[in-house]
Amino acid sequence: MGEIPAADVVTGACDALIAGLDSPALRMLAACTRAEADYDVPDLLPPALDELGLTFHPAGSVAGQEAAARALAARMLAGELTPRELVFRIHQRFGHELPLVEGLANLDDEYDVLEYGGRTSAQVDADVVAQALRLTRHPRVAPESTVH
């Protein structure tokens, strides 16, 4: 979903092999050079995930967008992003168009008007954490079928 560079996907494939996961497509993915990664990863990642029994969401799909939003929320809950950074990234990436994260996009707007409202940054932060917890616990959507 564009959250990490293709070269990092290759590094992740190498790490997976070292950790004991193995499949023919995963080996092909891990064998990519940094120069090849941007070109080859989009074609190699789906079969590697499939062979490992993992779900691949096509770019731009609602299921993929929701999975990306959940991953961002989990990163915030793990302390990798601040609440403000989470809502900014959600709002920037999805606007108000993805119903699952509409509440987070609205909270980004609230940060922008803090000086005019009656709420504090800590109050909005608490709302963001509550929304992120809800998002990470939300039932997963079945992957959309793709036409091959």
| Morphology | elongated
Count the DSSP helices.
7
The percentage of residues in β strands lies in under 5%
Main β-sheet: number of strands, strand sense, barrel status?
none
Intertermini distance: 20 Å
Number of strands: 0
Q: How much is the average pLDDT?
A: 88
Low-confidence stretches: 142-148
- Spell out the helices and strands N to C: HHHHHHH
**SSE-based structural type:** mainly alpha
Brief summary of the model shown:
The chain has two domains: 6-51, no CATH class; 62-137, no CATH class. The protein contains seven helices and no strands. It has helices at residues 6-18, 24-30, 34-51, 62-77, 83-94, 102-112, 121-137.
Could you name the key traits of this structure?
64% helix, disordered C terminus, 148 residues, mainly alpha
Descriptive account of the structure:
The protein has 148 residues and is mainly alpha-helical. It folds into two domains: 6-51, no CATH class; 62-137, no CATH class. 64% of the residues lie in helices and 0% in strands. It has seven helices and no strands. It has helices spanning 6-18, 24-30, 34-51, 62-77, 83-94, 102-112, 121-137. Helix 4 (62-77) packs antiparallel against helix 5. The longest helix is centred in the first third of the chain and has 18 residues, at 34-51. Residues 142-148 have low confidence and may be disordered.
